[in-house]
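In this section we walk through a basic example: taking a raw amino acid sequence and producing a predicted 3D structure, encoded as discrete structure tokens. The instruction is simple. Fold the sequence below.
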Amino acid sequence: MRARLPWTGRLVALGIAIACAVPLAAAGSRVTPTAAVTPQGSTPGGQSSEIYLVELDGAADTFRKEAKAVGLKFSERFAYKSLFNGVSVQISKNDVGKLAGIASVANVYPARYYSLAPEPTADPDLATAIQMTGADLAQAAGWDGTGVKVAVMDTGIDLDHADLGGDGNQAAPHPFPNGRVIAGTDLVGDDYNADPESADFQPVPHPDSVPDDCNGHGTHVAGIVGANGSGPSGARGVAPAVKFGAYRVFGCAGSTTDDIMIAAMEAALADGMQVLNMSIGDAFNNWPGSPTAAAASALVDQGMVVVASIGNSGANGIYSAGAPGVGDKVIGVASYDNTFVRARGFTLTPDGRGVAYSNSTSNSASIPNAPPGPTSGTLELKQTTEAAGVGPVPPSAYPGGTAFPDGCAPFPAGFFAGKAALIRRGSCGFQQKAENAEDAGAAAVILYNNQPGAVTPIVAANPQVAIPIVMISQLDGQLIHNRLLGGGPVSLTWQTEVTVANPTGGLISGFSSYGSTATLDLKPDLGAPGGLIRSTYPLEQGGYATISGTSMASPHVAGAAALLRQARPTLAAAGFRDILQNSADPALWSGNPGFGLLDIVHRQGAGMVDIDDAIASTTTISPGKLSLGEGSGGTATLKLTNTSSSPVTYALSDEVAISTGAQTFAPLVSDFWFPDTTVTFSAPSVTVPANGGTATVGVTVLADPDDVNGMANQGLYGGYLLFTNGDDVLRVPYMGLKGDYQAIVAMPNAPIVGKQNAPFTKGPQTYVAAPANEVWTLASPDEVPNILIHFDHQVRRLELQVVDAASGKPLHPVFSNYVERNFVARNSVRPAAAGPFNADEDVFAFPWDGTRMHDNGKGTPDHRKVVPDGQYKIVARALKALGNPANAADWEVKTSPTITIDRP
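The resulting token sequence is shown next.
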């Protein structure tokens, strides 16, 4: 048993991330990260539409007959065969209640939609990313994915790209299949866009004959999985010899839906794919039982390894991971930043070291920026800490009157005389520093930060500055300062771009989503490079590009699964995750790596995938992760299996990781905690026999067992169990929630009776609270009341019940609901105090058409009853996550204002 960490004192909010001697807070006290990283890359969506997945109790034909008998009008889109028992339909929202009332219907799920919006950024090499995962070592050992078929469900694959089996010729028709893309299908067509708020909304699929890519995202993902470097400036992916299946579920732009995705999963299964990558995620829909997550898990049962991105909503707090990556048997993948990036910069003499910079901005649309850094030319550097006839002055001489620290005072005339001025940030504004340097003859100003982190200097061209102004890091500025202090001279040569170490390389990406799932299962499962990844792109768009997102991390793991499939062709699909988790390497906390503590388990999972170690491993620990649920901790039994020819003994220990408190929404800067957990093993070591021998070990984890150190109730804690044999270290991550999960308030406010802020047009929909005296005629969609509900947390079941406004009594002893929904997501942000409210960000909108559900037991009647004109209220009943439906305390109940119905 490990003693509690002997830390004392409270940790103050730090704006730096540097290894230094600072007093750490007591176990369980809050810790504070450095500045957040701006999310970038492909961002998942999450809104309801008029497309619904209908789960059936019986056959689809029975459903069709029942629907026809009640006059229900809809357009059927897909009928599923293997992964989901049901159909998808397009139907008026006002008829959804009627649809749910049909006898053969078990559940109705709004088809949530998924958007892709990647933006090419800087340009690092995919080679540095595959080095981070050990894929380069696995390839050197002969593993390249030969004989493995990988499905890419995405925007298609550029069938002409030489790195992906094409001939490099952009001219149509695109060859399909080609040398590498051997299967696939287009399920949507170029103009498909399922986002009802988009100006290009077009929800009817018009599939093309080939799954070519006119967006770019799918080609980029496929390149990470297995580009083979055959192109003119070729990229080489993780598994460069795999064959691809291309399953196109996006048009050239826009969004897709659950029903399209499940259809694509069934197509991949029919084509015999062995690994599926889905760089797609529905943020905040983190229910493993939701349709795409459940279908993806069913694929694993059918023998396919399924890998999916966990989401790019890290800025929106915990419980932001999305389906399908939250599926029970799916490998959900987080993102780490690439170790190197390419950016605008310059090189230094004499060693050619690259230095990246950011250009200044004026911070005003009406005032031009100072000139940017050029792309060629050489300048000698001179810094402000120089005195005439003396040379560079060390910082200890500040402020001695012989130097000009930080450039805040005017320099002597000609002080810089055509040189580049190196000036430290601080003491005065950037504009003042730049003007002083230009007055002294500087040809450019190189500002450097006085603390870690990035910053963009604000320097306007008017009224004076007409020389380039750029900003570099503290580390690079100090390096140049020290070189000048050592005697110089030092010159810079401007470049179009330079390759430089990424200061956040190897740390979890700022955009990467937090778990856990709504059922307190540990997600994500592991991570891979996803921040700033260069890979293949359609030839029409340049052939190569760099994108950031968990979309880029997932295919690294899909490629790893392909290599592992080649190395272990008889391994069951369900066994891949354990091996990949056991061998993964967790990273330090990105909020402040100087503390030396591991990052949040429910953000990085088991850690960075380590492909060569996974292939070489001979011991597997199952389960590969522990989800301890709610309470004060938990117990588990771990099984170790040894396939080597010799017995092996492991010493048992554990490592702590940063925890999060109960605060769901961002900003999380005040809700990180040092954990207080104790771990007890059934023995200090375990020996596993050879040749398939097994052994077990018990483990008990207690969270803040004496409840004296302040670990937040409803906070998520975690850590890692270590199994060590010499240099061989295997890990099992664990996670749990301290206290009562149902104590989290899911529905903090009473429902609002609202209406659309404007008649429906293509574009973002907003709602406003209706006046208290509003009379609803129900004559048109604009005259239908919408019940607006904000969810702080996911709920297992939502029921909206119609009651008499005066008495508060339900309209029927049994059948008074007009909406019943399972697996409800949380909203992405807290709403403003007053509207308008953004649909599905601030609130969910549930239109009420003046009917209630009913069932008279005859099997085929209209299962809706029209309520008479009058005054009503809507009672919202929400069953909390993991709540007991029979326990009234696990239901939250809130009542709306009065709704007056007066039909024409």
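Looking at the output, two observations stand out. DSSP finds 13 helices and 50 strands in the chain. The mean pLDDT is 86. In the next section we compare this with other chains.
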